[in-house]
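seq:
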Amino acid sequence: MNDEHARLQAFQQDLGLWFRRPELLQAALTHASYCNEARDPTPDNERLEFLGDAILNTVIAAAAFQRFPTAREGDLTRMKALVVSEPSLATQARVLRLGDFLRLGKGAATGDRVSDMPSVLADTFEALVGAIYLDAGFEAAQSFVLAQLGPMLNRAATEGSSTDPKSALQVRCLKESRTVPRYEIVALEGPSHAPAFTARVLLPDGTTFTGQGRCKKDAEQAAAEAALAALNRPGLDRTPPPRD
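struct:
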């Protein structure tokens, strides 16, 4: 118990935020794997994650609306999707060292590197927001979210704002699945003075599309354009690639 108390005290000191109900913070930092091995019933952070997700979306949507009064609905959607995406939340969770304070089951803590998984880190960040809300109210949660993610929102307003295929595909994937597409160069043909690159993009649902170009960037844009064309085609049967 003393070790748990010291752990929570250290985290709050690092965070610069003190909980009136430290059991909420403890729940936010408790992964389901820990509960599966605990002798006494203890809550995990999944319910707090649900609450924090709703608060995050509300705070970032409102901030985008207020900060960028001339932005159109599509741009506001893009900004929010980028900021509350799994990669962004996981990045900020690493800044806060959430993984170092996460309570995990023995297997998850030793062999699986669960504490550094982007999905786990993003979920823990959301749970922390939910815990702050329950402990200190909406304004405290809002202040925390904007302090942590406000700079990301400002960058999102200027980055990736073009309508090129890669940007459009990223926004769509973030909005629908909270993950980003992945690209790889799968072929390089032709002479050195006139190369032909083939890029493949892997979507969150496992489907892939390819495109060609005179450089890597053009090939990736072509692959993204092919993916968007397929996604926008009604009634298309998209079959995931065969397993190796």
